[in-house]
Amino acid sequence: MSGKLHFYNTISRKKEEFIPANPPFVGMYVCGPTVYGDAHLGHARSAITFDIVFRYLKHLKYKVRYVRNITDVGHLENDADHGEDKVAKKARLEQLEPMEVVQYYKDRYHRDMDALNNNRPSIEPQASGHIIEQIAMTEAILEKGFAYESNGSVYFDVEKYAASHHYGKLSGRKIEDLQSNSRDLEGSEEKRSPLDFALWKKASPEHIMRWPSPWSDGFPGWHIECSVMSSKYLGNSFDIHGGGMDLLFPHHECEIAQSVGANGVEPVRYWLHNNMITLNGQKMAKSLGNTIMLHEFFSGENPLLASAYSPLTIRFFILQAHYRSTLDFSNEALQAAQKGYSKLHTALVTARSLSTTFGQENSEVALKFERWTTELSTAMNDDMNTALAIATLFDMSAYINGLKNSQEKHIPSKIQFDTVTELFSAYFEDVLGLGSDGSSDQSGKKLDEVMTVLIELRSKAKEDKDYATADAIRDKLKAVGVTIMDGKDGADWQVDA
To answer: Would residue 381 count as lying in a domain?
Structure first.
């Protein structure tokens, strides 16, 4: 698959070659957060997954419009059609205006996503800013006969839709099974069927977030906002829709029904879903008390954490697994990720500052470069297999370290080595987003300077036959993960993996 990009399309349940509708332009919509609390590791995985898709598509020279929404209204407790709005509930508990809550947690979400080195989306619409459009789509669905009004609320008629369309095509659910397994729930007495979902909800007297509509003063349902905002900015049919596996049903299934019901066309060509993160094999959830917020990872202030972890360590940890596989969190796994990330980052710093004796054009190096190029593109073209891409980067880092330590027999020309460095940088920094914001590079330069001083002090101690001091410097550096290597041309050092 080195030459052609393939995605696993959830709706077809197979890998398909990616062919955008209007190349080189690509439209991608991703479900963003409901901003009533801080971001956790699950938010990070989804954001990083689709940041990688965004980055790699741009690497392939596509012009990408990436839309990721902010949900600030309509998302009720338990993802249901009854109960309190999640944002409004937080506002009530904190004695704040709902939009104060939205602004506060939106800013904190951006802070955490920026720290993880995620690109901002091209457009980041908010549900509350598109009420008029949500009312208009609800009216269109009513006109097509796929919805009905009940006591000031409007509900999508799932059974009516299923009579002429395939409801459940994305999730694999059958309407017959859904009907037999459904039961009346609190607040569902307005519905013709428990399967029906709200397009518009009449606001109760105590409900703060409300807008006028042809049916009542109320607010939009959770599902319709994504149908509206995706079609507004990407058209009625667009290339990619992404989100977490937990959104597949009912949220994304309902999106399809709404969009087809209103516009008469399939809204999405490729559906992509990232899997969940678990803790000791158990899903992370607030109700289970095992959720760790991102800022807690960065500070280490959570009893489940052995230490603090840098944002790019978290990013590397997530990218070590394929986005469709379950990823299990542990401190051991994060510590291993910390070492792995440090090794690759150090290799890049080394490559950019390497002062060695380069040779003539080397055919073996040319073959290595060709193999690495093929491996990296093949990995990413095969449904974004970042784990395999990282494995190739480790192979490249071993070669770079071999040159630094004068242990590599295949010596490149300067031009050849520059192409190796450029390839490593293109995937490590640009595609995988593991490059630093500059502070790490500065830290790397400072570390180089400090190590130069320590090596000079150790060499002076050896000249003075003060072997105790020389050995103490070596042993103390070893204890913190830095190995001193004595060679014929003097001493060198490396950060241990």
So the answer is: yes
Query: Which of 259, 274, 289 is the C-terminal boundary of a domain?
Result: 274
Assigned token pair, 374: 């093929």
Do 463 and 371 share a structural domain?
no
Q: For residue 458, is it within any domain?
A: yes
Rounded CA separation 235/267 (Å): 8
How do residues 416-475 score in pLDDT, each as one tens digit? 999 999 999 999 999 999 997 444 445 555 666 787 788 888 888 888 888 888 888 888
Give the angle 253-258-260 at the CA atoms, nearest 5°: 95
- Distance (Å, rounded) from C-alpha 273 to C-alpha 46? 8
Same domain, 183 and 61: yes
- The DSSP result for 349-382, as a single string, is HHHHH------S--HHHHHHHHHHHHHHHHHHHB
> Is the preceding omega at residue 24 within 30 degrees of 0, hence cis?
yes
Residue 138 CA to residue 146 CA, distance in Å, equals 10
Whether residue 134 contacts residue 125, with contact meaning beta carbons closer than 8 Å, is answered with: no
**pTM, two decimal places:** 0.88
Give me the count of residues in the chain: 497
DSSP assignment of 432-481: S-----SHHHHHHHHHHHHHHHHHHHHHHHHHTT-HHHHHHHHHHHHHTT
Query: Domain residues for 485?
Result: 445-495
Q: Is the four-CA dihedral 352, 356, 358, 362 of positive or negative sign?
A: negative
Neighbours of 162 (CB within 10 A): 18
Give the span between the Cα atoms of 147 and 344, in whole angstroms. 55
Count Cβ atoms below 10 Å from residue 93 Cβ, excluding itself: 10
Domain assignment of residue 12, yes or no: no
One-letter identity of residue 228: V
- 398 and 359 belong to one structural domain: yes
The CATH number linked to 131 is: 3.40.50.620
Q: Tell me, yes or no, whether 368 and 485 share the same domain.
A: no
pLDDT tens-digit series, residues 135-188: 999 999 999 999 999 999 999 999 999 999 999 999 999 998 888 776 655 556
Question: What distances in angstroms separate CA 102 from CA 86, 87, 154, 202, 495, one per listed residue?
Answer: 11, 7, 26, 22, 43
- ∠ CA(68), CA(72), CA(78), 5° rounding? 100
Structure tokens at 369: 């470069």
Facing residues of 29 across strands?
67, 241
Q: How many CA atoms lie within 13 A of 174 on its CB side?
A: 3
